[in-house]
Design a protein that fits this description.
The protein is α+β, with helices and mostly antiparallel strands. It has a single domain (12-156), classed as paralog of FGE (formylglycine-generating enzyme) (Alpha-Beta Complex), CATH 3.90.1580. 26% of the residues lie in helices and 8% in strands. The protein has a four-stranded mixed β-sheet with strand order 3-2-1-4. The termini are far apart.
Length: 168
Amino acid sequence: MTLGAEAAPDAPVVRVSWFAARAYCAAHGGRLPTEAEWERAAAAGQKGPDGRDEPGWRETILAWYAKPTPARLPQVGQRPANFHGVHDLHGLVWEWVEDFGATLVTADAREAGDTASLRFCAGGAADATDPEDYAGFMRSAMRSALKARHTTASLGFRCAADLEEASP
């Protein structure tokens, strides 16, 4: 992936550490989503909060895994929003989340005593308990724990915010 003049201005921001992503969100009045928030948003289909029963939902996610990463990332927001109004949770980049998923702590990290510096990045989501749900399994299997200072060409972030409670 090339940065500079070759980078599309509306492509996802990548090569950002967890610290930089977190600071950017805070500077703009937001925060990184928690793992649970990210999972909930990514599980949605277009018609409801759980897309697993919607025709084509799994196939769309699997199609993403079948394609190689393009040299130039496509622009954000090109696919329809999901039930929650969120775009691009499947098919562009992996994303940092605020909290580290304890289930993802590696044996190497435990031995090194380095679990505090690891952060979670997600790349798809939903529950992987159904063996028929290969797309769900792949998303969970493709999670990764990285040191917060690391960056990659396919890891970005999105900002989240708390909803204002409605007055009675």
